[in-house]
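#struct-help
A.M.: can someone run this one for me? Single chain, 304 residues.
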Amino acid sequence: MNMFQKIKQYIYDKFDPVQIKIKYCIDMNNTLLDLSSMGLSELPANIPNFIKYLYCNNNNLKRLPPNLPNSIEFLYCHYNQITELSENLSVLLRTLHCTKNKITKLPINLNQGFPISLESLFCSQNKITELPNNLPSSLKELYCAGNQITKLPINLPFSLEVLFCENNKIIELPINLPVSLKILSCSSNYLKQLPINLPISLIHLYCSSNQLIELPLILPTSLIKLWCYNNKYLHISKNHALRVHKMETPNYNQKAIIIQRKWRKIKYYQLIIKMIMDNDNVLSNSFKYYGDLNIICLIANYAV
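D.P.: on it. Structure tokens below:
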């Protein structure tokens, strides 16, 4: 290193705000390093190897370096431009906050992906389409709202207590949710039904803005709060209404069956008249136009 490079390095180490923070951590033996909101496009290579808390949120990071210290237990990298997470995360990592990035997939390799110590994963508002089937068994909190997820893993960790998966494209929930689950937020998806046996420890259930027709026959005795608004044809029985302090609603599904039976007779009669009037003998085309699909649509329009 020539003299000019030495001077440049000295000025960099002396006056660069990132290096000043790193030096302070080293001098004070501080286990928290805050590099948030510093306009960084990449993290420095000399992060102290004893850091437990690393804040690098609100920057312009596109990736995390593969050689982050193994001492890190809490990593906050939300509000960046990260597209993919490293598969060499700290083995001691307990909390990962990577909300509001551009992540398309999560690490799936159990040996090199999420560490087995991970307890809280915040990955909402990304572009994730699926979750790994081998999430760590230590996981207690999972926030994956506002992604493009179509289904959840059937074997969610048994230790899971909080699950926020609203604003996705989920069609159905796993039949067997973790028994330890206390809070479930699955609003704004495409759910048509909830699991028959909800976890016995469930306290809060948010399932608004779906396509639910009915609630499970038996709700957990532990349930305190139920939000189920904006499910147009949701049937809330008298027992459930009293149980969760909601208004009783009609059984739209039962009404629809009765209406369907009546309309089917009328539509068959109209079909015969149409065929006679038009001299149309092509049964397949006529039934295609006047079939059950139209009857169901009609019910959807009038069974309000």
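A.M.: thanks! Residues 252-278 form the longest helix (27 residues).
D.P.: also worth noting: Residues 253-302 form one domain.
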